Amino acid sequence: MFSEKIISWYLINKRDLPWRNTRNPYKIWLSEIILQQTRVSQGLPYYYNFLEKYPTLEALATAPIDEVLRLWQGLGYYSRGRNLHFTANQIVSEYQKKFPENFEGLKKLKGVGNYTAAAIASFAFGQKVPAIDGNALRFFSRFGGINEPIDDPNTIKSIFNFAYDLMEGADPALFNQSVMELGATICVPKNPKCDQCPVRPECLAFSHRLQDKLPFKSKKIKVKERKLDYKILVNEDRIWLKLREAGDIWAGLYDFFSRELVPKLPVAYSFQKKHILTHQRLSISFQIIILENDETPDGGKFYSIKEIEALPKPIVIDEAFKITMKFLDQLS
DNA sequence: AATTCGGGGAA
DNA sequence: TTCCCAGAATT
């Protein structure tokens, strides 16, 4: 039987990951939010940091949002951090500190969608519901020989139903973990390791030699070219920063000055950076400009190096900040 | 249904 | 370079 095969493979070959050794819904929820669109290796240190700083749901709920976001710094998709904090507070104040114990209830939480609700419901509460993440989608697309684009909601639904049928009689948590682990380590996007796969004999993609054709998407990711032009305004050892507005990349993060300067002032140092993101390719020019007065145009203000290092929120392009620091060091 | 949220690693 | 990662929310 499929579920028995894949679960016995999992029990022998699984990675030892901290959130797999608990049924504490808080710890599982925390790990799932951190891991959304994030590799295990990238999220792991954040998971430890958060758990150390906030061992309980109440500790997280009580913390200032700025502190939470600062702990989130560098992980990206910062709305996850904001939702994390919001939901912790909501569960404390409206849910009597208890997570909903089923898929439908969990889905009502901010930042918890289909996958995350299914993951928590199965891992923490043993509910029979397939957790279809990117790994599972790829695995089932191949295993079932599903010749439909996996970025189509209808395909995702049919894969969900396909997985649900295969779960029959299995431990839901083990089943979901097994599928994701197989997708993450064996049924990988490129050059899948079919020779190590426990269910290769039943895999339709393998028998039809479609391992390298499945899954596929109907749409291609569009990458927008974008140029940004920053003036890094410096006054003695201080740098001008301003919080970015909502509605664009890096909303709510600290940003350098980015308007035309009138009158034009001499450029002390300049450098370029390319920043490759999923949907944008940013070409950024930085010009360090030394100001004699400390006027604070446009709502921002000058921050000392120490203040910047203790900033309550992340700063955009951390590398540019470091280059500026070096420049300031050489000045003095 | 399409777009928008980041950052990093693998091929 | 392109693709993808234990996706979700908004438009």
Overview of the molecule:
It contains 14 helices and six strands. Strand 1 and strand 2 form a beta hairpin. The mean pLDDT is 94. The longest helix has 16 residues, at 79-94. Helix 1 packs across helix 11 and helix 2 (25-35) packs antiparallel against helix 8. It is an alpha+beta fold. The chain binds a DNA duplex (11 and 11 nucleotides) through residues 19, 31-32, 34-43, 74-80, 83, 110-116, 119, 131, 133-136, 138, 153, 176-177, 180-181, 183-184, 188-191, 219, 221-223, 248-251, 275-279.
Task: Give the SSE layout.
Elements: H1 2-13, H2 25-35, H3 40-53, H4 57-62, H5 65-72, H6 79-94, H7 103-107, H8 114-125, H9 134-143, H10 153-166, H11 172-185, H12 204-207, E1 224-235, E2 238-243, E3 254-255, E4 267-276, E5 280-290, E6 301-304, H13 305-309, H14 318-331
Parallel strand pairs: 1-5
Antiparallel strand pairs: 1-2, 2-3, 2-6, 4-5
Helix pairs in contact: 1-11, 2-3, 2-8, 8-11, 9-11
The protein binds a DNA duplex (11 and 11 nucleotides) through α2, α3, α6, α8 and α9.
